[in-house]
Specification:
single chain; Methylamine Dehydrogenase, Chain H; 2 domains; 58 strands; 2 helices; mainly beta; Neuraminidase; 7-stranded antiparallel β-sheet; 5-stranded antiparallel β-sheet
């Protein structure tokens, strides 16, 4: 474990800000400049190359002897065809809209592959595509649009009718139907008005099964897991949710295997369940509680049912009712996005960017890296940045890219889920890992890959901000609970391994979006993603005693986006451009301003060389330390972020962020 920083390093850490990554603690080494442009006489921008490059994925489906795989957070969205016998990518098509492909389904003939996409905002464009697999050199074509914006799952009935589910923030999800004969997309109804997301659908000749819940934007009276049967002839819904599943946050997966309906849930406070239901009599079923928090990607060989959880693959034997891990001699499979059975082998599509083939009898495993097999490797949108004098780390989906500042070399490290935020202490990386993965760590001098350091309650699943309290020598993590609402503060002591979690330190609905530390006090910025209730509360919190010291309600209609400390002042940004400064010794709000011109939405902040900097989706900017006036450092920076921008500072005060998909270093020396 790293030793406590020296006094000089503590000062650097305090200067390093609170949203995003704190300052570096290792000696700075010169970095090779690939290309540099001068933004002003006192500002130099150095291009360090693509931030993350890989074939990132979010879905996989076996059709015949080919696995079709949908991309994630790549531009453009695309589908690839991985041929199992030759272990090569044999076809590709670009979709061009949205950011990810989560839903895939094939028609009964195997001729057409349907794909549903996710988008950041509804642009009124098609979100349902069809690819003719008999002519794979041709493009996938748009065939329709559901008004729920995101398509999370698709199913095709035996007669070729396509059904789609998904959601859009703030609206209960519907069941949608696409008729290939007429080309029409029809809304069939909203079976659960209190659900926030639907991720499961399956169809037979007579019935469509719809699974929903509140795995995102939960709490505040939203539904838990719900399963509905839609009668295709009568056009009516019936609630058929097994009683044992109603406490789980969401239905995660549904599959029809012969005369059985198999259903999996995602849990948080509850362990996930697996139900096997009789299609002829849905009231006849068995429910098995698993050891994990998710049951997804269902497959069967006729005797056993296979599924993926957060801990890898498992098998369920209906005749005995037992669940067992599926051992294999291959690597960690990470986040699994596709699972199919064929001729005694499981084809596993891993978020790490590979396809694994596992012999179910022997456990023998063959892994093929998709990039090496011919998949297009391109820049991915990023999650967060951490830096010291030797390395810059950029978080993405199932990967953390390590940039060596001495050689320019980039290595992709494997870490499941998403490194939403991180910090480097004495050369060791610490991350907050979504979803429900707790804290992970990586020491470049000792570790081959990152590994889990500490677990926290799984329902506190979305870490948002990591900072270091140099007085108490604690890592502080602000988090959100997607399923229960509200959030928490985590603390972890790198020296001793001691940890603690404080649930809802702001209130029952506000998550902790931003954390800053000064003189042993943690400052927590509250936010509320729902339409109702308080938002934008600032709480001063003792992270050792676990007690609130004082609080301040901010004069903004939106919650806190970012916090940073400079001297006696706490700087903060609200989510739509509200700027504020609090004098901490007097606990008074001493300055507010509207900075929407440079910060229209989410933001991050850090402190470098005695100046507080901020970055938005559009601009890198700074605040004058005396007047608090805002000025632009790099306009039109337009970082390719997936879940909000980040900025970081190294030990010499140089800033790191994204310009487009590229990692940049900004050396700013303003004349203040």
């Amino acid at each position: 474990m790293p030793q406590p920083p020296s006094m000089d390093r503590r000062q650097l850490l305090r200067a390093g800000g609170a949203f995003g990554i704190a300052a570096a603690t290792a000696p700075l080494l010169a970095a090779p400049a690939r290309a540099a442009s001068t933004a002003s006489a006192a500002t130099t921008v150095t291009d360090l190359g693509p931030a993350i490059e890989q074939f990132a994925l979010m879905s996989g489906l076996l059709v015949g002897d080919t696995v079709y795989i949908g991309s994630r957070n790549l531009t453009p969205t695309r589908l690839i065809a991985f041929h199992l016998p030759t272990r090569t990518v044999v076809a590709r098509t670009d979709l061009g809209t949205g950011h990810s492909v989560q839903a895939l389904a094939a028609d009964p003939t195997g001729r057409y592959l349907y794909a549903g996409i996710l988008t950041k905002a509804d642009e009124g464009l098609p979100n349902l595509f069809r690819w003719d697999l008999t002519a794979p050199d041709g493009p996938a074509v748009p065939v329709g649009r559901t008004e729920d914006r995101d398509i999370r799952e698709l199913a095709v009935a035996p007669d070729g009718t396509v059904y789609a589910v998904g959601g859009v923030p703030g609206k209960a999800p519907a069941l949608w139907m696409y008729d290939p004969g007429t080309g029409r997309v029809t809304k069939l109804g909203v079976p659960d008005p209190n659900a926030t997301l639907a991720r499961a659908v399956a169809a037979t000749d007579t019935t469509v099964f719809f699974g929903a819940g509140s795995v995102l934007a939960g709490g505040d009276g939203t539904s838990k897991a719900s399963l509905y049967a839609y009668d295709r002839a009568a056009r009516t819904f019936a609630d058929v949710t097994p009683a044992e599943m109603r406490r789980d946050p969401s239905l995660r997966e549904i599959a029809v295997f012969g005369d059985r309906l198999v259903v999996g849930t995602s849990g948080s406070t509850e362990r996930a369940k697996l139900a096997v239901m009789d299609l002829a009599d849905l009231s006849s079923y068995t429910v098995t509680t698993t050891a994990g928090t998710v049951v997804k990607n269902l497959a069967t060989d006729g005797d056993r049912i296979y599924f993926a959880g957060e801990g890898g693959l498992h098998s369920f034997t209906p005749s005995t009712g037992t669940v067992a891990p599926l051992a294999h001699d291959g690597p960690d499979l990470g986040e699994i996005w596709g699972l199919d059975h064929t001729r005694g082998t499981l084809a596993v599509v891993s978020g790490y960017g590979f396809v694994g083939e596992i012999d179910t009898a022997s456990g023998a495993c063959v892994v093929t890296d998709l990039g090496e097999a011919g998949a297009p490797v391109s820049p991915q949108t990023a999650m967060g940045i951490a830096a010291d004098g030797c390395h810059v780390y950029v978080g993405g989906n199932n990967v953390i890219a390590r940039h060596d500042l001495r050689t320019g070399a980039v290595v992709n490290l494997r870490a499941p889920g998403e490194a939403k935020d991180a910090e480097v202490l004495d050369g060791v990386l610490y991350t907050g890992q979504y979803s429900g993965q707790g804290m992970w760590t990586y020491d470049p001098s000792a570790d081959e890959q990152p590994h889990q350091l500490a677990k926290f309650p799984s329902e506190q699943n979305r870490p948002l901000d990591v900072c270091f309290d140099s007085v108490n020598r604690l890592l502080l993590v602000g988090a959100q609970s997607d399923t229960e609402g509200g959030g928490s503060l985590w603390t972890y002591a790198p020296g001793s391994g001691a940890k603690a979690v404080y649930v809802n330190p702001v209130d029952g609905v506000q998550l902790v979006r931003a954390v800053a530390a000064r003189e042993g006090v943690a400052y927590l910025g509250g936010d509320n993603p729902t339409a109702q209730g308080p938002r934008g509360t600032l709480v001063a919190f003792d992270p050792v005693a676990g007690r609130e010291a004082w609080r301040l309600d901010l004069p903004f209609s939106t919650g806190v986006a970012a916090l940073a400390v400079r001297g006696r002042h706490l700087y903060g940004l609200a989510r739509k451009g509200g700027f504020f400064v609090v004098d901490l010794p007097t606990r008074r709000l001493v300055h507010t301003a509207d900075v929407r011109a440079v910060c229209p939405g989410f933001a991050a902040m850090t402190t470098s060389r005695g100046v507080v900097y901020g970055v938005s989706d559009t601009t890198l900017f700074r605040f004058h330390p005396k007047t608090f006036a805002v000025s632009t450092v790099v306009p039109d920076i337009d970082g390719a972020w997936y879940s909000g921008p980040h900025v970081n500072v190294d030990g010499l005060g140089r800033l790191y962020t994204l310009r487009g998909h590229r990692l940049v270093r900004v050396d700013d020396r303003p004349a203040l």
